[in-house]
Amino acid sequence: VRVDSPQGRFAESAALLDRTRLEDATSSGKHLFVEFEGTRFVHVHLGLYGKFVVNRTPAPAPVGQVRLRLTGSAAYADLRGATACDLVTDAERTAILDRLGPDPLDPAADPDRAWQRVRRSRSPIGGMLMDQSVFAGVGNVYRAEVLFRHRLHPLRPGQSLRVGQFRALWEDLVVLLHEGVRTGRIETLRPEHTPEQSPATPAGTRNYVYRRTGLPCLVCGAKVRTEELAGRNLFWCPRCQPVFRSRAVR
DNA sequence: GTGCCATGTGAAA
DNA sequence: TTCACCTGGCACC
């Protein structure tokens, strides 16, 4: 493939890879590794704004800040706005992978690694879900939604979860992330909760609580709450997700 | 048109 | 804990 950095920030590495063979591309959590001959990898992390767009050739003149352009005979790919786009060695790639927890999209992932962290920790489960060394690939939308789907308050300490609750959470992440890959969007509503269109649930409402602060919960009608944790917004329903499950009396 | 916010991370303080 | 990165969507004027 031709490898180019129209914007310039990846130019030196692009020159090294230009006219070599692109052999593979794999992802773990939020990290993408594009492998070139000679066991060289381009490590890409899209971060908040990054976008990798693939189209058929011929490629038009790059518009705006294109960090990396890969051009093959039939298709080209433009990368813009990424947090990371670096040429790395196999050892560097392994070091990045070693920092990641199990990825629910990986059939070989061992969820017990995550469970052993969660069950020993007093940290809030909402924080642990965002910790890529515990769960690789989960972000703010999936965090909010999977906790809602399991009626878990985001600030509940990891160690307060029972193993059954953790297993259900993991299995749901496996389902939700695969569904996300399949559809290209994050849709987390169960069919029975798909709302009628209204001011509180405009067309395109795809989630229970994520970014629905102040709007009525789709299940119970209580107002969705938000609070910052480690610089990111938590969203939850105060009625469906109490901090402590009220025990059945008697 | 303007300003704010965001599917994220890591360096600096 | 704060900020920088650096792009796009959308609410609001």
Q: Can you walk through the features of this model?
A:
With 250 residues, the chain is of the alpha+beta class. 25% of the residues lie in helices and 21% in strands. It has six helices and ten strands. The strands form three sheets. The protein has a four-stranded antiparallel β-sheet. The chain has a four-stranded antiparallel β-sheet with strand order 2-3-4-8, with helices on one face. A hairpin with a 2-residue loop joins strand 9 (225-229) and strand 10 (232-236). It is globular. It binds a DNA duplex (13 and 13 nucleotides) through residues 30, 45-51, 64-65, 80-81, 83-84, 130, 132, 139-142, 186, 210-211, 230-233.
Helical segment tally? 6
Main sheet attributes: strand count, strand direction, barrel closure: 4 strands, antiparallel
Question: Which stretches are poorly predicted, pLDDT < 50 over at least 5 residues?
Answer: 246-250
- Residues in helices, as a percent range: 10-25%
Question: What Rg is obtained from the alpha carbons, in whole angstroms?
Answer: 21 Å
- Straight-line distance between termini: 70 Å
Biggest β-sheet: strands ordered side by side in the sheet? 1-6-7-5
Q: Which secondary-structure class do the elements indicate?
A: alpha+beta
| Oligomeric composition of the shown chains | single chain
- The overall strand count is 10
User: Could you give the order of the helices and strands?
Assistant: EHEEEEEEEHHHHHEE
- The coarse silhouette is globular
Strand content: 15-25%
Overall average pLDDT: 92
